[in-house]
Amino acid sequence: MKQTMQMIGQAMLVPISIITVGSMFMGFGSAFTSSGTIEALHLQNIITKGSLLFTTFSVMKATGDVVFRNLPLFFAIGVAFGLAKKEKGWAAFSGAVCFMAMHFIIATLLELNGITPQTTSVEFFRQQQHLNDIAAVQRASIYTSELGMFSYRMSVFGGMAVGLITAGLHNRLYNVKLPLVLSFFAGTRTVPIVTLMAGSLLGVLLYVIWPPLGGMLAQFSRLIGDSGLFGTFIWAVADKSLLPVGLHHLITTPIRLTELGGSMTVCNQLVSGTTNIYMAQLGCEETPQLLVRGFQSGRVVVHFGALPGAALAIYQCAKSPHKKVVAGLLIPVVVTMILFGVTEPIEYTFLFVAPWLFYLVHVPLTGLAFVLTEMANVSIYGGSLKDILPVLLQPAKLNLWGYLWLVPLFFVLYYALFRFLILRFNVMTPGREEDEATTRLYSKQDFNEQQGMRFARHIIEAFGGKENIEQFDNCISRLRVQVKDGSRVAPEAVWKKTLRAKGYVQVSERAFQIIYGAEVVMIAGDCKELLDEGETA
Description:
Layout: H1 2-31, H2 35-40, H3 52-69, H4 71-83, H5 88-112, H6 122-127, H7 133-140, E1 143-146, E2 149-152, H8 155-173, H9 190-226, H10 228-241, H11 249-257, E3 263-266, E4 269-272, H12 274-282, H13 298-317, H14 323-340, H15 344-351, H16 355-375, H17 385-388, H18 403-424, H19 444-451, H20 453-462, E5 469-474, E6 478-483, H21 492-497, E7 503-506, E8 511-515, H22 520-533
Antiparallel strand pairs: 1-2, 3-4, 5-6, 6-8, 7-8
């Protein structure tokens, strides 16, 4: 079960990868098509309606809209693609077929029963059924339009359900054999045919059960909204605690992209999920202030203050002969974290040498950072310069003053606490080991080898060879591999000292995760190329 949940969390990264790009387009496009921002920057003589620049930024904003208006479809395709073991292209195509079939059947049944956009609007529920404002919004929030089809608002949940069903059917049927007379429809061609029927049946089922389920989700989102700072602390602690086992996406994604993160009307459009609300507010000129409780603002405190403080403590605690090497290791990690938000290399630095330092110190302090950020009414999206740069172009909507004291406070707190604990309990962070090889600098030849096929061959051999690998994949920072015989996999020391891994996790007897940080994409690409070619020698 644990391995399955990890695979689902990993599959979520396929559609999530486009959200970052979409948010950047939305941020820049919205900023430079907003009259307030244009006037604040004194660009009204350069960026005018109808000009080439205004048209360019309008296209950028529309590009971002493509992402956030079609996330359910992207999740249906992305999850199906991510969980497919073979013939991933056919799985993605089948996911799209299943998704469209489901919503078209729902639209047909709604129309046959006289349920239309007009009879499900907030105004209709207010005037015709005499509901109060909150109840009317909750009732109306169940309905939406998907790809032009009037349907239920299932958000990312609907897309994920389709992706999971499609992947399950695909993995069973992609190589199915049929009688000779039906051989044209055998194998991969069977999958979209079956998912077309599965999507139709799913549409019939959801037509009946989604209204009560949607109502329950609306009530649960209110519970999250009413939980206040305690709920924020619990969410942040759960999110960080699940990072080592790769399940944190199961916590963050529903809050960011579904009704579990709440719903809000922005520019006369009902939007659900903290990220979707934030992006909609960013693109709406009528919105005076951005979402505060978006479960994102605390990341800046952790990434810009807390973890750099811990990194400085690790450097200070290193033995004098090793300090230069440790600095060379930590500086790129901290810079990457601030620029791109990749925290795992620095977090795994102390996670694997002292898990208690991660779970008993870093995790609860992360929860505290999110709580204090929310108390300070900070409103920002993301936790890296990549994310926040577009948002900074609309300063009138932002409140960043809390960062002026929170970031330095957590830098000092982490530095002092980590320095004390490392020295007090003799934690073997980089540079404190007796074995100097563990902190040595690598040559350009070493680096080039790591990027090339030779290094990929070493990794495959460390997993027991191609014949021992059942499934090989990766997320944004780690290799995720399932083998036939776990005893043939190289021990942790080999991965860290010889293969330069930043971390090693044995999930089960046959499932392993090897952490490489941001470069894992290139490493995994080389390995997959060798595995596909059948060459490892």
